[in-house]
Amino acid sequence: MWDIIKLLLNTTVFAATLRMATPLMFTAIGGIYSERSGVVNIGLEGMMLIGAFAAVAVSYFTGSAWLGFLGAILAGALMGFIHGVASIKYRANQVVSGTAINIFAGGLTVYLQRLIFNMAGVSPAVPRINDVTIPLISKIPWIGPIIGKQNPLVYLALLTVVISHIVIFKTVWGLRLRSVGEHPRAADSVGINVYKTRYVAVTISGALAGAGGAYLSIAHLSRFVEGMTAGRGFIALAAVIFGKWNPLGALGASLFFGYADALQMRLQEIGIPTQLVQMLPYILTMIALAGFIGRAVAPKASGEPYVKEG
Amino acid sequence: MAIVLEMKGITKQFPGVLANDNISLDVREGEIHALVGENGSGKSTLMSILYGLYQADKGEIYVRGKKVDISEPRVAINLKIGMVFQHFMLVEPLTVAENIVLGSELKRGPFLDYDQAVKEVERLSASYGLKIDPHAKIEDLSVGLHQRVEILKALYRGAEILILDEPTAVLTPQEVDDLMEVMRSLRENGTSIIFITHKIREVLAISDRVTVLRRGKKIGTKDTADTNAQDLAEMMVGREVLLRVEKTPAQPKEEVLQVNDLVVKDSRGSIRVNGASLSVRRGEILGIAGVEGNGQTELVEAIAGLMRPQSGQIMLSGKDITNWSPLRIKKAGLGYVPEDRHKRGLVLDYSIADNLILGLHADEPFCGVMGFHSRKAIMDNASKLVEKYDVRPPYPQQRAGALSGGNQQKVVVAREFNQDPELLICSQPTRGVDIGAIEFIHQQVVAQRDRGAAVLLVSAELDEILSLSDRVAVMYNGRIVAVLDREEADEQKLGYLMLGGSLEDYKAGGGNSHVG
């Protein structure tokens, strides 16, 4: 029993929590921008995967992991924009468009992987973004081992959360974003450009999902593995809902899923059946969604194309 | 007075409809100009053109003497034209202040200057006497306050010409009084108001001039002082209209509906009907007067089986129907015209024909062997009812959602009345319905009474209660506080009772003082 409690509060587990939560944070924040503007983004998973691949490809050709990260953001943004064109301009069903992006991303990355690297399954190792040690903080007991030495992208993800919270709730653009996702006609009637706002939001959404994917391929690992996102885009989507469409809430949800993920790895070590443990994050998600947070209130116009009158 | 706005020869064609046919309108500074007409007469189209939501095919608009081209709402806003829509344009989770400044925000760099926004709202609120809490979230406010926020929104944008699109349609009588106060105060401040309505009483109560539209054409503009209700109704409908319902004295027989000590809680667990008792007899119309939200909705829904009562008893034709299912109650002889025809009365995406068999869809002759519907029986039924109840346009295949409010209501009325119910409940039967259709529906209600139905009428319109009822019950705070014979009831007495006054106090002379 004592062993389990020690394990639950282990600094290594907490440090792993942050690492596992980072791709979820980026992607969930991306999902929030999109959903807040009224566009459902089921395609986060595919956008992450494309980001993961683009990061490796750019890193491979330029030799710079940071350029790889930038490449992932641009590739993700492009996918987001495409989702925007389908769902805003052509008013396609957003779930269908997002699903199409997921399937497309799976196929495209496998195809390019074989075309560029001529290898099945995994890419060769590429330059990765290395962990950094923060001088003073890393010396603090208990805290130091958790946040003192991490990947720069972990810190960047945390920064993204804070900045996004300010953008969404304190700026004029954020106010307009929320109004567009709740009541686009009202926003239109006071002269806000609904379509433009949605395009920007869904493009940011793709960019952040791309960043989340890049973390997996060039920070956590240093290569691309086919299908490496393994459903994290959907978990990020759950984190959006769990976090009630708030960046800080999504941070909490991402940490919660990250913790379950980290714990899962350690529990396997002490002999609890793997399959059972692997279910943990998902079971906790369902319990949380069903009971703890109560009724989740989505932006009202989420998923509805806006048709201008006249 | 100077003319601030002139619309000349406005024409707008929609597919199949000439919505505005060469309409001209002028509005003076500081006047309340009523724009009236039945549903579909082109009022809303004309105002949407003025606000830049639609473009006119032909015609010119002059604001303060200058010709303008209003291509979108932003242009209208810059010309100091404001519009309060019938369906409010408010973002529910945002605060009052945020909604008011939205789109024309006060900025500090990229940030919203929220404190300044709150101050600005407080300033406007004080100078026009529109009390509101700037920090309240829209979703927590009443409909009347929503409208107040909309008016403030227009004033914040500097509106000098304010369009109010059927502002009273959603308000309780008290809120209507408040709104009229606000309109007067705006007029004193020099604001010109275009007041869209189809309630003649309101036109006469507040407007300076009135313009009447009918089927896309302008019928005329008159000084309100030179006109009267009968005159306006004729201009709107194009023929003589009976504003008074013709009916013979009631010949009530045995009791059909009895409600004893009914208690109903809503989904949040608060008591809405608190021991209400009443009875309705065959051959009479019992009207329930009351300010909306005093339990009328829940009382009716409990009788119809849509809400489960906490305690009490409901008897229909001698049978205890308490806790029966809605279908079983319907079969036992209930006809029900619900207050919200969109939520409860119709499936908007179904055709008129299919809507006309809702609730009868499993019965002969519409449902044949093996559960298949008989198209022929459904269409025959529809053709017959569409003609009898004057649904326009008379195409049974037409989607119900495409009909005007009045014609949608006629579909509901046709379905429910045609089953010759023992008990007929009509809840707000003429809400959002134009004068011609009101007259028709009222005649049908009286015809049902004369056929031998017991009619329970619930209406927020005192005029409707007084012109149809044989007896009037007043509902306040979940109880029936008084039941009067029609001869004993007048507007003043009912108004007093509706606000919680007692009959004894009224008789003692309290009727002239204000209820505290």
What is the structure about, briefly put?
Chain A has 13 helices and two strands; from the N terminus they run αααααβαβααααααα. By secondary structure, chain A is an all-alpha fold.
Describe this structure in words.
The complex is a heterodimer of chains A (310) and B (516). Chain A has a single domain (2-130, 152-292), classed as ABC transporter involved in vitamin B12 uptake, BtuC (Orthogonal Bundle). Chain A contains 13 helices and two strands; from the N terminus they run αααααβαβααααααα. Helix content of chain A is 72%, strand content 1%. With 310 residues, chain A is mainly alpha-helical. Chain A is globular. In chain A, strands 1-2 form a two-stranded antiparallel sheet. In chain A, α3 (44-62) packs antiparallel against α4 (65-89), α7 (152-170) runs antiparallel to α12 and α12 (247-269) runs antiparallel to α13. In chain B, 33% of the residues lie in helices and 26% in strands. Chain B is α/β, with parallel strands linked by helices and 516 residues long. Chain B is globular and about 70 Å long. Chain B has two domains: 3-237, P-loop containing nucleotide triphosphate hydrolases (Rossmann fold), CATH 3.40.50.300; 255-342 and 419-512, P-loop containing nucleotide triphosphate hydrolases (Rossmann fold), CATH 3.40.50.300. Chain B contains 18 helices and 22 strands. In chain B, the strands form five sheets. In chain B, strands 6-9-10-3-11-12 form a six-stranded mixed β-sheet, sandwiched between helices. A six-stranded mixed β-sheet of chain B has the order 18-19-20-15-21-22, sandwiched between helices. In chain B, α14 (405-417) runs parallel beside α15. Chain B has helices at residues 43-50, 73-78, 96-101, 114-128, 143-156, 173-188, 200-206, 229-237, 296-303, 326-331, 341-345, 352-355, 375-388, 405-417, 435-451, 462-468, 491-498, 503-507, and strands spanning 3-14, 17-28, 32-36, 58-63, 66-68, 81-84, 107-108, 111-112, 161-165, 192-197, 209-214, 217-223, 255-265, 271-281, 285-289, 311-316, 319-320, 334-337, 423-427, 454-458, 471-476, 479-485.
